[in-house]
UniProtKB/TrEMBL annotation, chains A, B:
One GO MF term: DNA-binding transcription factor activity
UniProt-listed SMART domains: HTH_MERR (SM00422)
Originating organism: Hwanghaeella grinnelliae
Name the record gives this protein: MerR family transcriptional regulator
Domain HTH merR-type residue range list: 1-69
Any Pfam family the entry gives: MerR_1
UniProt keyword list: DNA-binding
Lineage: superkingdom: Bacteria
Keyword hit for DNA-binding: yes
PANTHER family: HTH-TYPE TRANSCRIPTIONAL REGULATOR ADHR (PTHR30204:SF98), REDOX-CYCLING DRUG-SENSING TRANSCRIPTIONAL ACTIVATOR SOXR (PTHR30204)
Length: 116, 116
DNA sequence: TACCGGGTTGGAGTTACTCCAAGTCAACAG
DNA sequence: CTGTTGACTTGGAGTAACTCCAACCCGGTA
């Protein structure tokens, strides 16, 4: 797959994908005879995961850690699993934050309704 | 109130509060005889609201708009109300995103559990 | 009087992109 | 065969929203 196809498939922009490769967040990206990047299905799955991790607030430092673990093979699976479990817990914290903000907004909105 | 007290009260750092003032996100901040900022209860409430808006993804451009509306007086209340209602809807979208990420993570975590 | 703990400013550094200019290359039209 | 189009390449500049820092001021205590 070409970079534009991958961008359409995984949700990241072509620029971001190039930036992620340069930053060491994608294990193995091949090149065609023309020098263009060629992405495997594995690459696309990987980038799709990164998209979701990033979209929900994981830092690039964390993602880089996750990537280098993935390159070290199966023996790092427990640690990689733990990173994802921790991130799932982080999602819960964010959900709670949205709820608190929602409450603040509702109070504020009602205060506009009263004095009008 | 001094800036450090406000920081403790509203959740933003002193640096961020100064940055927000410089950027025109706080309507009226007074100064004491010593040249230090003095914050009113209104200021603190305002900054607490900004904290929640920012924490849940509102951009500074939007917050600046909200601030300049607040300075125009009561006639802008309907528009300010609408901004908050729109942001509440945005919170729903973010909640849905967290849910989708959660699902992706669970699938991935289970895939680690299988082959081990 | 010397220091300490607050505050002040302006400016540099950081993260995670995003955009752009200049160049290459393959494919197709005339 | 030549010219244009479109998609890719790189390096580098620009952006948002902070965050940190140096250098300074000022009021109060030992």
């Amino acid at each position: 797959m070409r970079i534009s196809d991958v961008a359409a498939a995984c949700g990241l922009s072509a620029d971001t994908i190039r930036y992620y490769e340069k930053s060491g967040l994608i294990p193995t990206v091949g090149r065609g005879a023309d020098g263009h990047r060629r992405f495997s299905k594995e690459n696309v799955d990987w980038l799709t995961l990164l998209y979701w991790l990033r979209e929900t607030g994981m830092s690039m430092v964390q993602m880089r850690r996750f990537c280098s673990l993935a390159q070290e093979g199966d023996k790092t699976k427990p640690e990689r699993r733990r990173i994802l479990v921790d991130h799932a817990a982080e999602l819960d914290r964010r959900r709670a934050q949205l709820d608190r903000c929602e409450a603040v907004l509702q109070v504020k909105i009602r205060s506009y309704d009263k004095r009008q």
